[in-house]
Design a protein that fits this description.
about 450 residues; alpha/beta; Rossmann fold; Ubiquitin-like (UB roll); 4-stranded parallel beta sheet; about 30% helix; globular; binds iron/sulfur cluster
Length: about 450
């Protein structure tokens, strides 16, 4: 398929990155690409989507990868899978010889193996310099479910109307469910057998970077997990702390041991982010040197410094995020600059995922979450007009319209970075406003 044709199909099909911020996939396609990397690292603990898709849909995913490699004229496609995903590795090994330009790369079981910059270094030894994007080193990184969606659009003309979501933690039967986009978190938790305890907090996304949500929030194109966690576990208590309390704690308890910097995955690859210097500057009001503050842009918010590295239980990540967001709101942009050398102790300083899971108090929740399909029988869906990065959609339906599953109901404005939005169930439109569209079906 020609590049322009594929871009058009992915725009119309509503394909965005299903594993992270949801960048529109068509905008990633480039004839500058030399290497396409499939991210099967499932970066965050407890999420079990990609490894299972890789076993159950291996040929569809490898075909989708081959299609992307061919269309972009890249030299190769790398299937990057964590060492412990044994059945995914087996599935890929049994099929990969049919795909001439694809090769398998086994990743270590570390956090954050799925961070694009870390992944590119692990698989190609190339460094994406600070403030730059992967294509500057000829790489494009794609998520497993995204590639499955590319394959479905190109071969079956299926638009994106469903999402795979792991539901885990304090639920009776952890699952990874294929559900229509727009169903509520409560519905997903019911599918997993309901809550095990009364006292819980729900996180949408992984324990390191996900956000606290309500049971009335809805699944979007980027929802990868719903985690029902005890209120006392670190991923919850850290999220409930305030900037004021984090700052006070930094002022009184930061020992400047620099462990947060020593284990920072971006610093280990030569980036200038040094969380301990930022903590010293912000805790003591040192403003004559702006570097620690400007370097906040080179933090990827992986959370390792606050959830794992800091022996004082401080929260460098939350303070870094607060500061970085403030700079962005004032229109400050990150500078592009070369990285320093890769730390020669990087191999020894990688954080094993199993240790992180123990530190987070989540080992008992790290259990199987088998794939189940729950696509039908949904009475109502609420589709957000902003599903991902880029421009939100504008509704192109009105109340009382009858729609069919897969029909376009929203589109970005002409020329804006975004993709089409489709009805995820057939039914009648009951609400349309600037933020969402509700569809009600006659089915139970
Ligand atoms: S690890 Fe904690 S105590 Fe040590 S420098 Fe970093 S923030 Fe301060
Ligand atoms: S969150 Fe902390 S460990 Fe992660 S990139 Fe930022 S400073 Fe480094």
């Amino acid at each position: 398929m020609e590049m322009l044709e594929l871009k058009k199909a992915l725009f119309e099909g509503g394909v965005v990155g299903a594993g992270g911020a949801g960048f529109p996939t068509y905008a990633k396609l480039s004839d500058q690409a030399e290497t396409i990397i499939l991210n099967c690292a499932e970066c965050e603990p407890l999420i079990k989507v990609d490894r299972q898709l890789m076993t159950d849909y291996v040929d569809e995913i490898l075909s989708g990868m081959q299609m992307l490699v061919d269309t972009m004229g890249a030299n190769e496609g790398i299937i990057a899978i964590k060492k412990s995903y044994l059945s995914s590795i087996e599935a890929v090994k049994s099929s990969i010889e049919n795909y001439k330009k694809l090769r398998l790369h086994i990743l270590p079981d570390i956090y954050p193996a799925g961070d694009e910059v870390v992944l590119i270094y692990e698989t190609t030894k190339k460094i994406v310099e600070q403030g730059k994007i992967p294509i500057t080193v000829g790489c494009v990184v794609v998520n497993v479910e995204t590639v499955l969606n590319v394959y479905k659009k190109v071969t079956k003309d299926e638009n994106v109307t469903t999402k795979f979501v792991t539901v885990a933690g304090l639920v009776k039967n952890p699952i990874t469910a294929l559900v229509p986009i727009g169903i509520t978190v409560k519905k997903l938790i019911d599918m997993a057998g309901g809550f095990l305890e009364e006292d819980f907090i729900v996180i949408m996304g992984g324990p390191m970077t996900g956000k606290i949500c309500s049971v009335f929030d809805v699944v979007t194109k980027t929802t990868k997990a719903i985690l029902v966690l005890p209120t006392s576990c670190p991923p919850v208590t850290k999220r409930q702390s305030t900037t004021k309390s984090n700052l006070k704690a930094a002022m009184s308890a930061c020992s400047q041991c620099s462990m947060c910097t020593s284990l920072c995955p971006r610093n280990l690859l030569g980036a200038s982010i040094k969380p301990h210097e930022f903590m010293r500057a912000i805790a003591n009001g040192i403003t004559y040197n702006v570097e620690p503050f400007m370097n906040t842009f080179y933090c990827v918010s992986c959370g390792l410094c606050e959830m794992y590295s800091c022996h004082q239980g401080l929260s460098p990540r939350r303070l870094l995020d607060e500061y970085k967001n403030g700079l962005r709101a004032k229109g400050v942009k990150p500078m592009q600059k070369p990285n320093g050398p890769v730390n020669r102790l990087r191999e020894e300083r990688k954080v094993p995922e199993h240790r992180l899971i123990n530190r987070l108090g989540l080992a008992k929740f790290d259990v199987a979450a088998p794939l189940v399909t729950c696509e039908t029988g949904m009475k109502e869906v609420k589709l957000l007009l902003r599903q991902s990065l880029g421009a939100p959609c504008k509704a192109c339906v009105k109340v009382q319209d009858k729609v069919l599953k897969g029909q376009i109901i929203g589109m970005p404005e002409d020329g804006a970075l975004g993709v089409c939005l489709h009805a995820s169930i057939s039914g009648t439109i009951t609400t349309v406003n600037d933020n969402f569209i509700i569809i009600v079906s006659g089915d139970e």
